[in-house]
Amino acid sequence: MWQVFGSNRVAKLLKAIDKAVADKYKYAFSQLAENPEAGKLLKGYDNLRSFPLTTPGGEHRIIYQNKPEERVVYVILIGKRGNVYDLLKRSNQK
Fold first, then answer.
1. Residue 87's CB: how many other CB atoms inside 10 A?
2. Could you give the CA distance from residue 44 to residue 47 in angstroms, rounded to a whole number?
3. Is residue 51 helix, strand or coil?
């Protein structure tokens, strides 16, 4: 099993969202720990993946990168599907 870590930004976002949505994210993180290749590769980004997540608040995405040498899934960004890709573009994460 892999470990799942997130950026400080992800930790802040998780604290700010509804508990039911946060619980869905936590479950998705456990799925990624078991299968880090579950998300699809994002075109135009080096080794970034997107994992879909359906929550009571709508469709969300987890943007992450695998670090196989460390057996780590590093979560870069989380958010609603419509917003997360815009945030990713603005962050210039390549």
1. 17
2. 9
3. strand
